[in-house]
């Protein structure tokens, strides 16, 4: 069993991965899938806007972010920049809520053009893949070798906790739009 000092070293990474997925699942797809194109005007783009700009771009950008960690890992495992970047991702919640999400009851549409939504989606998905992968890689590296398996299990638990919390909070986010 891992000693307490080893596990103290991963709590920031564990809560970071939890927060990453809370923001991601709280927003995607609950809010993002209800975004409508403002350029389609009944054309073909209206049919493909959500599948392409929401789901395809999310998955490609997320995969790109995850893949980049195989060749480039910055910030380092003890850097305060990593949790700060993860906390900064909360900005995507209001950004997506202020896009053309329909139907809406409370907030105005501030980012009307499809380009805003696409740019937000690219950054959102890439940061999700990259930052979550960094946390999951660094967790077991932050403890002694004999504690790595336990650290990996803890990281997986906090990832799942983030997924569940994001799913729960997605209902609130959608109601606020």
Automatic annotation (TrEMBL):
<keyword id="KW-0812">Transmembrane</keyword>
<dbReference type="InterPro" id="IPR002259">
    <property type="entry name" value="Eqnu_transpt"/>
</dbReference>
<feature type="transmembrane region" description="Helical">
    <location>
        <begin position="12"/>
        <end position="33"/>
    </location>
</feature>
<feature type="transmembrane region" description="Helical">
    <location>
        <begin position="45"/>
        <end position="61"/>
    </location>
</feature>
<keyword id="KW-0813">Transport</keyword>
<comment type="similarity">
    <text>Belongs to the SLC29A/ENT transporter (TC 2.A.57) family.</text>
</comment>
<dbReference type="Pfam" id="PF01733">
    <property type="entry name" value="Nucleoside_tran"/>
</dbReference>
<dbReference type="GO" id="GO:0015862">
    <property type="term" value="P:uridine transmembrane transport"/>
</dbReference>
<feature type="transmembrane region" description="Helical">
    <location>
        <begin position="81"/>
        <end position="99"/>
    </location>
</feature>
<dbReference type="GO" id="GO:0005886">
    <property type="term" value="C:plasma membrane"/>
</dbReference>
<feature type="transmembrane region" description="Helical">
    <location>
        <begin position="151"/>
        <end position="173"/>
    </location>
</feature>
<keyword id="KW-0472">Membrane</keyword>
<keyword id="KW-1133">Transmembrane helix</keyword>
<dbReference type="GO" id="GO:0005337">
    <property type="term" value="F:nucleoside transmembrane transporter activity"/>
</dbReference>
<protein>
    <recommendedName>
        <fullName>Equilibrative nucleoside transporter 1</fullName>
    </recommendedName>
</protein>
<feature type="transmembrane region" description="Helical">
    <location>
        <begin position="111"/>
        <end position="131"/>
    </location>
</feature>
